[in-house]
Hints:
CATH topology of the largest domain: DNA polymerase, domain 1
Largest sheet: 2 strands, antiparallel
Structural class: mainly alpha
Number of strands: 2
Strand order of the largest sheet: 1-2
Amino acid sequence: MEANSDPVSNLDSAASPGAPPAAHEAIPPLTLPTPAPAAAPAARTAALLPGRRIKDRPASERPRERLIEKGADALGNDELIGILLRTGLKGANVVQVGQELVDRFGSLTALARASVEELKTVRGVGRDKAATLVAAFALARRMARELQREAPLLDTPEAVADLMREDSRVREVETFQVLLLNTRRRLIQTAKISDGTLDTILVHP
């Protein structure tokens, strides 16, 4: 008799008569390795850490170098003010002091109206820095007045409003002013007649 070469058949024939067929061995479930938790994002670069001195930053992040390379319009108000202040204080760099000034006064217009004593109430701003800011804003106002002296044509209400807008922004009280024009409707002089009170302005004939 020829031997059965089928191993499965041999196993089947070896089983006891009437015994239940052997159950197939259960395949263990596939367990995927749990991925390691993602690494925490790296901290902000040292150059951007609050309080880091400006001179320790890369040149591309220093306000003065950025102004030279890209122009003043590329800088924020805090950076431009920082250039004027030049130095910060322990724990806050000069740009942060500039931002504190903007935050404290609420706007550049209010900041431009501030006195030396008012500016000195901001931490990191002493007498010299306050005087520098007052001088810078005074120069800006004088420049605006020089532009006005170029005898602008005032032939529409809009032209008058544009002329007076910059001067009005820095005044703390309402004023009554007269614009003197030549026969070609070009400005000769601006004359202030009186300053207003809380709710009234007096104009004498």
